[in-house]
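Dear Dr. H.,

I hope your travels went smoothly. While you were away I took the liberty of generating a structure for the chain from your last submission, since the lab meeting agenda had it listed for discussion. I wanted you to have the full record in hand beforehand rather than looking at slides cold. The sequence, exactly as received, is reproduced here:
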Amino acid sequence: MLSVLALIGIINVTALAVPWYQKTVIRTKESLLENNLLVLRDAIDRYESDNKNAPKALRDLVRKGYLPSVPIDPITGNDQWRVVMEDA
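The corresponding predicted structure, in token form, is as follows:
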């Protein structure tokens, strides 16, 4: 009987811990994404200031030394960002 109660207690704790952990992981990924976007925006702004036009691709920022590498999107897990150009 005691082992059954202990098992129920563990299941209840797990039921509470898993959603909390998942939310923490999502918040962490969102925070990393926000930081990566700020880094990209800063590099694009510096590139535009120096070259008087926007980079054609994010790899241009790496080739010209504005970034050491294209940051990884923590949501998708890769460095293939979808680039959306502003209207002139």
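Two observations you may find useful: The CA atoms of residues 3 and 9 lie 10 Å apart. Helices lie at 2-51, 58-63.

With kind regards,
E. W.
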